[in-house]
Specification:
The structure is a single chain. By secondary structure, the protein is an alpha/beta fold. The chain folds into three domains: about 140 residues, Nucleotidyltransferase, domain 5, CATH 3.30.420; about 200 residues, 2-Layer Sandwich (Nucleotidyltransferase, domain 5); about 200 residues, DHBP synthase (Alpha-Beta Complex). The chain is about 35% helix and about 20% strand. The strands form six sheets. The chain has an eight-stranded mixed β-sheet, sandwiched between helices. Strands 3-2-1-4-5 form a five-stranded mixed β-sheet. The protein has a five-stranded mixed β-sheet with strand order 8-7-6-13-14, with helices on both faces. Helix 2 crosses helix 5, helix 7 packs antiparallel against helix 11 and helix 16 crosses helix 19. The longest helix has 29 residues.
Length: about 575
């Protein structure tokens, strides 16, 4: 049975395909049209999915979209009666209905087929049910508590409960306008980070400050007995109709969410590009502490209500790796699963999984322990891209390829590493990565100067052999394959790997399994043989753009930046030293 999931008309548009309950393809639209967080209909990803899998539109049984504008209609009506929002908010909701009704038309237009040629049923899956399904049904847990928490989707910002087998039992929700995600976004904007999705920058900045403004943030929300929370709406604007995400073919833009009251409490907001001061650093630390209070309040009461040891977590807030790394120390949960596309792009996979398990009643037969579900390319295509660019290269045998790549990293060179199928989700996990030496204190500055052009306070992450991870990091689990948890670097190891050790002595860890990614594992293992340290610095293969998808994009990034080495499949090439 072929079930296609789609996240459309929402940021991070994406497509995923399940065949008999097993994910066989998944990717974000941004990787094809090269616009970060692109919304709208993911036509490029849809076409590429069917091409790669080798099926036609007529072979699809179900098409599931992770959006249902009819969800929570009574709550929406009650909100309008109570708050009398700006008419633009009502107009925005009506627009969502119109876009939803045009879904089948956009689907057939993207594929160039007639509706009569399809046999697939079109199904709408509520946003948070898709989030939950994307985590719980792929977790390997037969039973678990679950939480989906984000900015907003289908009029809810958080949904929690318990799953068992192929059933989901929802126990509670937080409805619009109350949202932990909106609180974090409002503060992100106040700190001068205005691009959609900039919240991760604030997480990096938080390590440089102290939570001296926590009491002020506590006035912005209240915690409820059942695990829910409410915002003090005096501090926000979105309930008045100013929470819209705008997208007109480009990157999404979010309305300003903080009210004038923030200025009275904290002073003027930082302008983008202005110097960061202690105030901004302390605001970031205070915001992070506030979010953690909301999250752990919910999780502790969720555990009390369910008694489960396992937790499946999803939604945009599940990308908060600082909080994720503390769940087992600040709650009674012992095992935590977060799939690699925990944000909105993952709802495409979740919508398909929800239909397969909840609508079709199918049992589970798959655990998602890797993210390599995107496009792959033949060796012939890789060589064509290199020849078209007029580059000199060599095809190396496996042993030499591994040895020379590890040597290059050990020599302090910057390596573009392009292998196999692209990762699903926002993290480069060893197939579309830039590799560097974690032992060099100056490597962070080298990467920022030569390739990434990022803010100085943003950390780089380590990839470590799964077997050696506990020797270097104080982890609460056997593996962390998706780089979604921050753990302390063992104190005696911090001086050995300074390039990936953050200001507070932590790192966002990716463990690498020989089974899931044997070539990447072999490079790290060889680097360990040469240096004594089985850890490499891993950052995404891009420069202020979506992560590279095709070999042509990898070659272009290599040529326009100061990456020293490009390893494209089995092909190895190195720039001539500047004279």
């Amino acid at each position: 049975m072929n079930i296609l999931g789609i996240n459309a008309y929402h940021p991070d548009a994406s497509v995923a395909l399940l065949r008999d309950g097993v994910p066989v393809w998944a990717a974000e639209e941004e990787r094809f049209n090269r616009v970060k967080h692109i919304s709208g209909f993911p036509g490029g990803a849809l076409r590429r999915c069917l091409e790669d899998v080798g099926i036609g539109p007529a072979e699809l049984d179900v098409v599931a979209v992770s959006k249902n504008p009819r969800a929570s209609l009574a709550r929406k009506a009650l909100f309008v009666l109570r708050h009398r929002p700006d008419l633009s908010l009502v107009s925005d909701r009506l627009g969502a209905f119109r876009r939803s009704s045009s879904f089948s038309r956009d689907f057939t237009a993207a594929l160039g087929v007639s509706p009569a040629s399809l046999r697939a049923r079109f199904v709408k899956v509520e946003h948070h049910r898709a989030h939950i399904a994307s985590s719980f049904f792929l977790s390997g847990f037969d039973r678990a508590a679950f939480l989906s928490i984000d900015g907003m989707g289908d009029f809810s910002s958080a949904v929690w409960g318990r799953g068992e087998g192929n059933r989901l039992e929802i126990a509670g929700r937080v409805y619009f306008p109350h949202s932990a995600g909106f609180l974090y976004t409002a503060a992100t904007q106040f700190l001068g980070f205005m691009r959609f999705g900039d919240e991760y920058k604030v997480m990096g900045l938080a390590a440089y400050g102290e939570p001296v403004f926590l009491d002020q943030f506590r006035r912005m929300f209240s915690l409820l007995p059942g695990g829910g929370f409410r915002l003090n709406l005096e501090y926000f604007t979105h309930h008045r109709g100013q929470a819209k995400v705008h997208w007109q073919g480009g990157a999404p833009e979010q309305d300003i969410l903080f009210s004038d009251l923030w200025t009275r409490v904290f002073g003027l907001p930082r302008k983008p590009g202005d110097e960061l001061t202690d105030r901004e650093r302390d605001l970031a630390a205070s915001l992070q502490a506030a979010l953690e209070e909301i999250l752990f309040h919910n999780l502790n009461r969720l555990h009390r209500a369910t008694g489960e040891e396992n937790l499946a977590l999803a939604g945009g807030v599940a990308f908060n790796s600082l909080a994720n790394g503390q769940i087992t120390t600040r709650t009674p949960f012992k095992n935590v699963y977060i799939q690699p596309a925990a944000g909105d792009s993952g709802t495409a996979l979740g919508a398909a999984a929800y239909v397969h398990h909840c609508r079709e009643g199918k049992s589970r037969n798959f655990t998602m322990d890797h993210a390599y579900l995107g496009p792959g390319f033949s060796e012939e295509r890789l060589e064509e891209a290199l020849r078209a660019a007029g580059l000199n290269f060599r095809k190396l045998e496996e042993e030499e390829l591994i040895r020379r790549t590890a040597e290059a990293v050990a020599q302090g060179l910057v390596v573009g590493w392009f292998q196999g199928r692209m990762e699903y989700g926002p993290r480069a996990l060893g197939n579309r990565s830039i590799l560097a030496d974690p032992r060099r204190k100056d490597m962070k500055d080298i990467l920022n100067h030569r390739v990434k052009n990022r803010e100085h306070f943003r950390p780089f992450a380590p990839s470590v052999l799964e077997e050696k991870a506990h020797e270097y990091f104080e982890m609460d689990c056997a593996a962390s394959p998706f780089m979604l948890k921050v753990f302390p670097v063992r104190e005696e190891k911090r001086g050995l790997i300074p390039a990936i050790t953050h200001r507070d002595g932590t790192a966002r860890v990716q463990t690498v399994s020989k089974r899931s990614n044997p070539r990447y594992w072999a490079v790290i293992d060889e680097f360990g043989r040469q240096t004594g340290i089985p850890v490499v610095l891993n950052t995404s293969f891009n420069e202020n753009e979506p992560i590279v998808c095709s070999p042509e994009e990898a070659v272009n990034c290599y040529r326009k930046t100061k990456i020293d080495i490009l390893v494209l499949g089995g092909y190895f090439l190195q720039k001539e030293p500047a004279k």
